Every structure is written in structure tokens, then in C-alpha cells.
Amino acid sequence: MAAHFDTSPEVVPPSNAPEVYDARQHQAGAWQPYGSFTPRSMDNTLPFDRNDSQVYSSGAPTLPPKSELGSPVAGTATPARQGKRRSICGCSFLVFVLISALIICGAAIIGLAAATGISMRREKSANSELSAMRASSLSEAPTVTVTSSGPASTADEQERLTHGCSRKNEKTSRTVYESKFFNSSFTMYCNRNAPNDPIFSLFATTLDGCIEACATWNNRTITETTCEGVSFVPFWAVIGNAAKNDAPGDCYLKPGPQDRDGLEDAQDTHAAILKD
């Protein structure tokens, strides 16, 4: 049988162009005469360095044994170690915070107790000094003896209280007293008592004060009754004497009518009548 040759032209690509794969070259019975194709040099076409030490297998990659898979790679932490909580001084963070809080509270309590003790000590010292000062002042203070003899202790004092009615030869009767606060005038009578029931009683201490009370009543108090006379008892100017006699005062304001002829005799009682 005669041999058949493929007489079609063959395309030879340039040295740097990609190689065209011709499937007919690998078909059964297809062959080319020797020398019809010149293979390219591998050293000129490979864009990378050849490494003969690399061996490629056409089969599937093999897995490492289970013994190697079970052991952790050196330098990597296991999940248990990666999830371990942070510790401070061998204690967990929460325990460390609680211990620190307890220490701070204890220090605050100790400081408060110390401050309280210091303040109490200072207060005690201040009280001791104050007591010493009081004792010293009491021991150094002079002793004063006061004798209460009442308004009639001396003749001059009695004369002042009664506006001169206590004199043996009194010259006060039928003299006029002018009010120091209001435009009122009163005629004074010694050892006389103004009649009628009093409209008010008080402690005036002196005959002058009793007359001023009558003038004030007429100018400050809104009443239908006018004070037209007064009766003053100097003995009751002492509160103790008035209390023993159940006297509500030493000055008694009297309503009208009042006149000289209507006055009553009364020892140690002095009267004054409002002038028209």
C-alpha cells in the first residue's frame, strides 16, 4: 500500500508567538516526515526560570496524616488559649476591681473616723478652755450686794415719785402739770383720791407717769370714755407690795366728772384732775 503524505502548507509562527496546537498530529495514522517541523528552543520561549527541583504530579494532591492534623502548629494559639480572660496580679479583672473598691471604701472609713476623732478632741478642748475662762471670770468678778428698799427708801426718792407730795410742807397741791407728749394740763392734789371706778389700771411707777398715761389714753385709745382724773399709790409701785394687796397697778385712770370738791381724803394717795 502506497504511503500518503499531507501536502498542505504548514504555518510556522514566529519565535515569540503562541504555538498553534494541531490536533491532527496526534490522530492515529497521521505522521509527518522527519525534518518537516523544527521545534522551538524551550530556553527562548519560557517567560519564567526553570526549576528542575519542582516536580509536578498529574494525580490528586495527597493529604497529610491525621497525626499531623491533630497537633497544633508551633507558634499558634489554640482556641481555648485565645479565649482566656485577662488577669491582673493573678486575679480576674472583676475580682481586682472589687478588691480595689473595698480598699478605697476602707480608706475612706478610716479617714472619716480619724477626722471625727480630731473634731471631738478639739471640741472637748474648747469646752475645757471655756469652762476655765468662766471659772476665772467668776472668781475675779467683784461681789455686789444690792438692797431693795422700794420707792420710799429715801425722802428724796419718795419726793421724786410723788412729784413733791411726800414733803412735810408740800407745795404740790393745786399746781399744774403740763403733758410732755400731748396738749393736756392736769391739776395735782396730794393725799387725795379721785372718785369713780377706774377705766384702766397699770404700773406707772411715778405720779408724772400716771398723768401721762391718762393723756395717752385720751389721744391714742379709741373709746367712748375719757380719762378725766388719776389716782396714784406710790406704795404699790413696788411689785411685791402690790401683789400682797392684790393691787392690779399703782396708777388708776378715772372717768368724769371730776372736780376739786369731789376729791376724797386718802393718806399716801395722790390725785390729778384734767383741766378744761
UniProtKB/TrEMBL annotation:
The keyword Transmembrane applies. The chain crosses the membrane at residues 93-115. Residues 56-79, 141-163 are annotated as: Disordered. Keywords: Membrane, Transmembrane, Transmembrane helix. Residues 141-152 have a biased composition (Polar residues). This is Uncharacterized protein.
